[in-house]
Design brief:
35% of the residues lie in helices and 23% in strands. With 192 residues, it is α+β, with helices and mostly antiparallel strands. The radius of gyration is 17 Å and the shape is globular.
Length: 192
């Protein structure tokens, strides 16, 4: 029997991050339960394209490294399948959507006043973008569905997942954990 205020077991959120700073690309994913407790963590070693690769791939290099080398590797290695994959960069939304076997959204904070009630969903000018009041006190979160997935029913299904998880955790906080973990791994590798 489930405790009244505890999340259902087996429900997970997946967070994907790819960083392309300082000439090297690295990526990581973190799958947590709805309380924010890690269930799976994967990362890639930094990938530094050579000068010749930069010339030969041209403007396609970034997409190739982020999508095919990093995201495909990470998502393929994940041992826990989340109810929802979350990214914070728009350029990751389409590649994750193609690779994932579940829903995908880009999630971002807003600076606007809270909506009337938890669970309120407000469509934005773009048919794939919605503001969601995920909890009772914070500013709404803005989520973007992959292109072609702007249907209200898809948005409501995503909103339901996010609202349930937000009653137990800060939905954006795992990104800071991933960033700190990648920094710690880099320090270990560099011996500092």
């Amino acid at each position: 029997m489930r405790e009244r205020n505890s999340p259902q077991t087996g429900k997970h959120l997946g967070y994907a991050l790819v960083d392309g700073g300082e000439g090297a690309f690295r990526g990581a994913l973190l799958v947590t339960d709805f309380r924010g407790i890690p269930a799976d963590f994967r990362y890639t070693d930094p990938i530094t394209p050579s000068r010749i690769e930069k010339i030969l791939y041209g403007s396609a290099l970034d997409l190739y490294i982020r999508g095919e080398l990093i995201l495909e590797s990470l998502l393929g290695a994940a041992e826990v399948s989340p109810a929802l994959w979350i990214c914070r960069e728009g350029d990751l939304l389409a590649p994750i959507s193609k690779l994932a076997k579940t829903r995908v959204v880009m999630l971002a904070p807003t600076a606007r006043a809270p909506l009337d009630a938890t669970g309120d969903l407000e469509k934005q000018n773009d048919p794939c973008v919605f503001d969601l009041q995920a909890d009772g006190v914070s500013a709404p979160l803005r989520f973007t569905l992959p292109d072609g997935k702007g249907r209200e029913e898809e948005a409501r299904a995503v909103a339901e997942i996010l609202v349930e998880a937000a009653s137990f955790m800060d939905l954006l906080e795992p990104f800071s954990r991933i960033t700190r973990a990648l920094s710690a791994l880099a320090e270990e590798r560099d011996g500092t």
